[in-house]
Each structure stands twice: as C-alpha cells, then as structure tokens.
Amino acid sequence: MSKRVCQIIKLKPEAEAEYKAIHANVWPSVLAALKRSNITDYSIHYYQPLRLLIATFKYTGTDYEGDMRTVAEDEETKRWWKVTDGMQESFVEGAEGSGKAIPWWTELEEVFRFE
To answer: I need a labelling partner for 72 at 20 to 30 A (CA). Which of 5, 57, 107, 113 fits?
Structure first.
C-alpha cells in the first residue's frame, strides 16, 4: 500500500528565480536516489503570496523511515540540499537542514482524500 506525503516550507524571497531555475533541471542523480527509495509522483508547487513551497509525493515501499535515511545518505542528494536548503526557511523549530534528525520540511496532516 502506498503512502502519500505532503510537506511545506517557506522560500526566501530573493531565491524565487534561482529555485525555479534549478528545479527546471533537477540533477538526474537526485531523481535516481528518489526512485531507488520508492518515491514516485513527486511535485513541488509554489504559492507566491505566502512564499510557500508545497511538495507532494507517493511512497510505494515498505520501510519509509529506512528509505528516507537512504535518500539522506546519498552524496549527490546531500550536495543538492546544500544548494536548495539555503533558499528555504523551515517552519520546524531547531531544524538545521535536510536529512538531519529534526525534519527540514513540515509534513502536513491529510484531512481529506478522494480517489
């Protein structure tokens, strides 16, 4: 059974153009790491008035925490996060960046689904 995940984070105003540009050409190695870790149907939307980035994806594996650790340990993904984390402002108190003990993106509760 798949799990759907929705997360948010804030985009720094000065980073809007650069963030969109880098995501127009995501590094193939980063996409491969996601695929290896059972992440599919990944999208990020941007709500400019509040500078919110809203990410959604499906997880199709059987060990979500383990697969998320695998993504966090991928060297190219770490390099990608060094670029993108600097463009973002986390809502999570104490968060220091992607792949750390405290989540960088805020995971949202699903309150409705229609399939």
So the answer is: 113
Residues contacting 45, CB < 8 A, separation 6+: 53, 54, 55, 56
CB 22 within 8 A of CB 30: no
Q: Is residue 65 part of a domain?
A: yes
Mean pLDDT, each 10-residue run in order, the chain (115 residues): 93 98 98 98 98 98 96 97 98 96 96 91
3-state secondary structure the chain: CCEEEEEEEEECHHHHHHHHHHHCCCCHHHHHHHHHCCEEEEEEEEEHHHCEEEEEEEECCCCHHHHHHHHHHCHHHHHHHHHHHCCEECCCCCCCCCCCCCCCCEECCCCCCCC
Residue 5 has what pLDDT?
A: 97
CATH code where residue 102 lies: 3.30.70.100
